[in-house]
């Protein structure tokens, strides 16, 4: 704790890198998973294919992916872009499942009622189905963001910044204080971002502010692979 | 492409598989860390999950614990443990155990508490005690979700066990870390391929176990149903999906 308080400037700098590395993949993953999920969730074959691919992606270890990616895509070895691309893959794989589940959870009566009122498929999607799937999407997002934040620290092993560098530095200098500071900083960061997403989710769904006890959280998509 | 060829030729050279630091020994070490860590986290998480799921008490504590543990960076915990307790088996197992607990706890808790209330009431009204309700009704019905948690936990642990090598320990991570250190990237690729293969094998095995454990399908039954068969009390199959709403 003492280390954290006496090194606030560098903690802030590392936090910014850490956030960039963990949140850019979330945005990119959402931008891929949402349209793709909406597009294929009714097509049985494509949906099955997507789910299987997603679970295969989960089984690839993160450290392995960080190292192997530069051999597949034209980035430099030990480049920040590798971490971002790798995390984007995991994020997309998890979110696309969350999109399926969220769309599945929209009651068919609601869907029928919207059609009966004269909504065309696109408008129905944008105005009825997607808003109703926000709670499950937010649950998936929270899991993704928290795991990403703790996963970015693994990048320190291959020399990529973020708060994980305090782990490797502290280990090499035999300073357990620095490692503890890194763990605390990451926990705080994860907690704050998690709360922000939860609040955003609440604000976006004013119609069910009253209910939703903690139980929902646990039935959120279970994260797989190298997390 | 030459990286892949080099890595493949490394993998297909018999001499690289034998000896105390050969692929076979490293794979065994890797599996040893994984098995020990998953076993310890199962010993901790499953009883707690069963208790909380059965009584319905402490739900909030479990939810916050799962979320907090998920954010805990394994690398940091591992390196801290090494500094505190020195090298050896304890640090990687403690760090990986903390990684395995959240999915196992969430799976067990969610599985037990998602069992149909009418099924539990029926079991009670037939005179089952709490212990028997839990072990012979709730657990068999929750088995797909519990095993789903075990699957996630094992996958995470087997993939993350690579970081143990950073603390001068063994396992397949050695290839990754050493390969990067000496800039022999095809060696790192060998490690990556081996870990991915191991993870896929584990995933397939546990996926089969989940398929077999779905209650009401009789997939676990060897003989035709006898009078005392547990499965007869079980409700209709909740399906393979991990997000079944009661």
Q: Can you give keywords for this protein?
A:
heterodimer, A: 227 residues, 75% helix, disordered C terminus, B: 246 residues, mainly alpha, 0% strand
Number of contiguous helices of chain A: 11
Overall 3D shape of chain B: elongated
Order of helices and strands of chain B: HHHHHHHHH
Radius of gyration of chain B from CA coordinates: 21 Å
The low-confidence runs of chain B, each spanning 5 or more residues with pLDDT under 50, are 227-246
**SSE ordering of chain A:** HHHHHHHHHHH
What value does the average pLDDT of chain A take? Answer: 82
Measured by residues with Cβ under 8 Å of the partner chain's Cβ, the largest interface is: A-B, 55 and 61 residues
Counted by DSSP, the helix tally of chain B is 9
User: Low-confidence spans of chain A: pLDDT under 50, at least 5 residues?
Assistant: 214-227
- Strand tally of chain B, please? 0
Gross morphology of chain A is globular
Strand content of chain B: under 5%
Main sheet specs of chain A? none
Largest sheet of chain B: none
- Derived structural class of chain A: mainly alpha
The level of helicity of chain B is 55-70%
Structural class of chain B: mainly alpha
């Amino acid at each position: 704790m003492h280390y954290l308080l006496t090194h606030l400037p560098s903690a802030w700098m590392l936090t910014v890198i850490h956030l960039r590395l963990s949140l850019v993949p979330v945005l990119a993953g959402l931008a891929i998973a949402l349209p793709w999920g909406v597009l294929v969730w009714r097509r049985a074959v494509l949906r099955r294919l997507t789910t299987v691919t997603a679970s295969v992606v989960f089984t690839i270890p993160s450290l392995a992916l960080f190292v192997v990616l530069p051999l597949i895509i034209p980035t430099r070895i030990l480049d920040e872009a590798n971490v971002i691309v790798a995390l984007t893959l995991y994020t997309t794989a998890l979110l696309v499942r969350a999109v399926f589940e969220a769309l599945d959870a929209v009651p068919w009566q609601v869907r029928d009622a919207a059609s009966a009122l004269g909504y065309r498929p696109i408008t129905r999607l944008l105005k009825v189905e997607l808003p109703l799937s926000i709670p499950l999407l937010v649950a998936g997002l929270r899991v993704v963001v928290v795991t990403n934040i703790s996963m970015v620290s693994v990048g320190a092993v291959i020399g990529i910044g973020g708060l994980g560098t305090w782990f490797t530095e502290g280990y090499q200098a035999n300073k357990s204080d620095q490692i503890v500071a890194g763990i605390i900083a990451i926990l705080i960061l994860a907690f704050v971002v998690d709360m922000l997403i939860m609040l955003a989710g609440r604000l976006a769904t004013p119609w069910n502010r009253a209910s939703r006890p903690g139980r929902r959280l646990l039935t959120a998509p279970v994260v797989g692979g190298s997390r | 492409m030459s990286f892949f060829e080099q890595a493949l030729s490394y993998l297909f050279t018999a001499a690289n598989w034998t000896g105390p630091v050969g692929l076979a020994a490293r794979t065994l070490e890797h599996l040893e860390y994984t098995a020990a860590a998953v076993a310890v986290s199962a010993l901790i998480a499953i009883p707690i999950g069963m208790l909380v799921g059965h009584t319905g008490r402490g739900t909030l504590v479990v939810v916050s614990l799962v979320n907090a543990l998920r954010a805990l960076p394994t690398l940091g915990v591992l390196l801290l443990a090494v500094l505190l307790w020195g090298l050896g088996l304890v640090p990687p197992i403690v760090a990986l155990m903390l990684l395995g607990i959240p999915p196992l706890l969430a799976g067990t808790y969610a599985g037990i508490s998602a069992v149909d209330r009418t099924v539990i009431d029926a079991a009670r009204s037939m005179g089952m005690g709490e212990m028997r309700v839990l072990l012979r009704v709730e657990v068999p019905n929750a088995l797909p979700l519990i095993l789903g948690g075990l699957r996630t936990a094992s996958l995470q642990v087997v993939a993350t066990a690579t970081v143990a090598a950073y603390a001068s320990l063994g396992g397949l991570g050695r290839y990754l870390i050493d390969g990067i250190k000496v800039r022999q990237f095809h060696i790192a690729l060998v490690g990556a391929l081996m870990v991915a293969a191991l993870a896929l094998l584990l995933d397939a095995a546990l996926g089969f176990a989940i398929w077999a454990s779905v209650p009401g399908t009789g997939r676990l039954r060897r003989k035709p149903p006898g009078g005392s068969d547990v499965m007869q009390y079980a409700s209709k199959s909740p399906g393979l999906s991990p997000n079944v709403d009661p």
